[in-house]
Amino acid sequence: MISSPALFFLLQPGRPSIAAPPLPSSPAPPLRGISISPVAARPISSLRSSSIRIISPHALPDPLLSLPSMDPQEVPDLLPPRPPERDFAGTPYVPVYVMLPLGVVNGNGEVVDADVLVGQLRVLKAAGVDGVMVDCWWGNVEAHRPQEYNWTGYKRLFHMIRELKLKLQVVMSFHECGGNVGDDVSIPLPHWVTEIGRSNPDIYFTDRAGRRNTECLSWGIDKERVLQGRTGVEVYFDYMRSFRVEFDEYFEDGIISEIEIGLGACGELRYPSYPAKHGWKYPGIGEFQCYDRYLQKSLRRAAEARGHTIWARAPDSAGHYNSEPNLTGFFSDGGDYDSYYGRFFLNWYSQVLVDHADRVLMLARLAFEGSDIAVKVSGVHWWYKTASHAAELTAGFYNPCNRDGYASIAAVLKKHGAALNFTCVELRTMDQHEVFPEAFADPEGLVWQVLNAAWDAGIPVASENALPCYDRDGFNKILENAKPLNDPDGRHLLGFTYLRLTKVLFERANFVEFERFVKRMHGEAVLDLQV
């Protein structure tokens, strides 16, 4: 479920935990505004938080730093001082939700470890958490036959949540679970869909080598009757309508506060351009995913309409999953991405993404009339400091340094009254550069661009963290993005969803920091501000 490749990178065997590669000797490519990227861990900030834990009366000592021969009071002097914290007392109330485990409801319609879960939810409620987020997996609910839906497990889960007076964010998860970083369970697409895929594999996104990605259905079949007489968007609509009918009382009582509509890989609005299952490793640029026959037909039509049938092809100089942009003919500075053909292809490729969002959100608005809906957009921040923004281009975001690739997405969300949920708000560009400088990543710049594109369009913005976050520096970064300092319009996030409920979160030192973070998101005062 976690789509950020940072965690994937950090889990690779043999990778040093703190040491960073040497800085590149050549000057960095052109910058675009402030840089921001959600990819790597925070080795320096985690050390800082360790030093604070030693002297804090609320935390446990860090065994790595409390050696017998060392005076704990001297440890903070060995590290850069922590910057002063902003006082968020009296600031707007931003609700905080917590994602439940991916497999909280299993394929048999049972709530997994229900008694343990209830105890954890009570602790979250006591800490002031507003609600939880739950994935409703298409592969579990409509598993065996078309239009036969089994909502039993989710009914039990939702009843437990309502009894504790927590709110619900529900995700319509039309993708498979398993194969992405952080996925700890396997939930494939419905069995009847994968059966169709065996005889017609073009229902899946396909790369240049012809490898099929079974994580979600190609947007090329949105209007093709290839799913036992139904189109892709009809299948999504029927599923959403069934959910709305089954859980009507939760909508009427206001327990369900938001529905997030899954629109692609990992439930995000993007192409599956960087799949680990096909050998991708961070910070590879990824590959275009438009080689199924339905998207190829769409590309041919677009080229014919333009009057250049020779353009009915994807780029042949775009490298492979793990290429660097400057080593390709298409993405390098002055490369074909900015040629007449390149602009035509990227316009088409990104428009397919926008059109898919338009079609599904129109039906989601019908199914969930009067309810809040949202769309999750991934934070593809690596190579953001280069001219082409190659990793964003293969993911479907036409966002090179001379074009705003998120304005069109904000516009389609505005059209259907949907909020934008963006990831990686806890990441700092400096930390990314320390871990992997050659990625030219800029999470902070990307967050700034996307949040402002949404706010300029007049749509609400929510966010979530891309990687597990337990330290004060990470929480402070989230707070800064949630409530920008001196914003002339007083803009702030609609809400924040914390990834994810685990046993590690409830470890004493971690939960103390989390509870403190919740208070500050709510605009409450805390007594231990670092000044």
From TrEMBL:
Keywords: Carbohydrate metabolism, Glycosidase, Hydrolase, Polysaccharide degradation. Gene3D superfamilies: Glycosidases (3.20.20.80). Its EC number is 3.2.1.2. It comes from the Eukaryota. One of its GO terms (biological process) is polysaccharide catabolic process. The active site is at E268, E464. Substrate binds at D135, H175, D183, K376, H381, T423, N465, A466, R500. It catalyses: Hydrolysis of (1->4)-alpha-D-glucosidic linkages in polysaccharides so as to remove successive maltose units from the non-reducing ends of the chains. This is Beta-amylase. It comes from Oryza glaberrima. The lineage of its organism: Eukaryota, Viridiplantae, Streptophyta, Embryophyta, Tracheophyta.
